Amino acid sequence: MTMNYDGNPTPSGDAWDELPWKNDVVIHARDGARHDLTGDVWILEDPACIRRLDWIATCIPAGPILEAAKEFVRLRIEERSYASADGEFQAIRCAAGTAAFALAMATMAGDPDAHLGTDIVLEMIDGGVDRVRITRWRYFYRWAARMDDAIHPPRRGFDRRVAAELDAIALGRHKREMLAVLRFDPYEGPLIDVELQALVAALSHTIKSAMLDLRERVALWLCLSLGTNAGPLALLRSSDLVRLGPAHAPEAYFLRIPRQKKQEDEYARKSSKLRRLEPVVGRLVAELVDCNRKRGEAEAMRRASWAMPLFLAPSANEQLSKGDNKAYTMHLTSTGFSELVRSAAAKLKVVSPRTGALLHVRPRRLRHTFATNLALLGVPAFAIAEGLDHSSLNTVAIYVDNARVLQERTDAALAEYMNGLVDGFLGRLHRDEAAAGGSAADRIYADLGDRGIEAVGTCGSKEECRLAPPVSCYTCRYFRPWLHAPHDGVLAAIDARADRLRAAGATGRLVGLHADAARAIRNLLNEVAATRATEEAASP
Questions:
Q1: Residue 265 contacts residue 337 (beta carbons within 8 Å)
Q2: What is the pLDDT of residues 213-223, one digit of tens each?
Q3: Do 216 and 343 contact (CB within 8 A), yes or no?
Q4: Which of 25, 202, 304, 310 could pair with 348 in a Cys bridge, judged by C-beta atoms 3.0 to 4.6 Å apart?
């Protein structure tokens, strides 16, 4: 016997027909706003972004799958956030667009016991769908399949064994956006130093920055200096600026940044983080606040109970103007703020040396740049998490790991570069054997091939040496090379031997010893050339 939502027995063997699904409902979101979810197109009046959930566009036919999806999204609106509900909707829509989903729906039309399978997720993985979207679909499937039989019957079209199999499917470690961070993607990853410096220089340049209006300059500066997402910055208001010190010469500027994506603060402006601004940025924000207050519509906004945002929208948002969220009527949406930053950066015409094209800038990319630079500076993970307003260290681990890899690459490249600059020759040049001292037994000989074997210097060590001359001699501090010895011939012989070793697959250490010796000989030849030039200049 199956039970309905009230716990009463259902007379029909098909419990689905007895479930009280409602297509016309009015619900209250967690922020208290009422939402009429009548019909198949839902409008969610998120203050940061008006969201339109079009169930017709999912192409899911009427029936248990569609009703389960709608009920799940309703719960997300009531219990979580608009962004969460929108994310779940997009995941369901993405899954519904697969060929595997269409095949399953066709099978279910003739077989009531059929259900959606794991092949939908596999197709999404093969199609390169972002792992976050796949995870959302998997979460929805678990919710729909894992109901308590003592209270609710299983939902048609879902199977608990499939839910368990979905959990076992491994997804990529990082979502697509994080892969761009790891790989320092030239279009989506963090900006490299030269790009960041060029952007800041252009923004600081009097003439170039004059191409931007005040609102654009402030938006770009805040993204660069705070690393905050577009959503919280779009929700800023003039009252969020805090100035400490005399009014004519403020000593410090702070900005209250609205928090988002917190379980207890899913909706706008329930709490904030106080961030200190650099004086130059603080003065620009204060100037923008003053300009906003001097605008002619400020009084009309106050009478209409509309808040004064820091970033004023070009026109009022009619969908918000008379609803529960009317205070946000003149706020930019998060999309509008992102576009503001993108267009501001485009006006500066900064060219990326990596792509040869104009630098692609958006708030999310500047956030990744902000976090990556903190990691490169050695800032602890917990401090990076606090700066990004993350509750978990897991999210910032990618920046710390990325910094470690980048530092290793930088160290290797720097070592290779410095090897060409550092003087590998540690000995001291002497004019001839007599000046070097020692006896015939202390001579160092080199095999010059067709030129025969010749002495190139004297060993000044008084202890027995077990190294192989002359390769090791040029990097030894006891070696006393002669000014007129054929060191160029030794260099040619060592280079040729190093090439033979590489061709034979010798270890890097052995080849490296020859490379060190060659570098030391080149240093010595420079010293020889300088000494000879000095002697020639001094001779009559």
A1: no
A2: 999 999 999 99
A3: yes
A4: 202
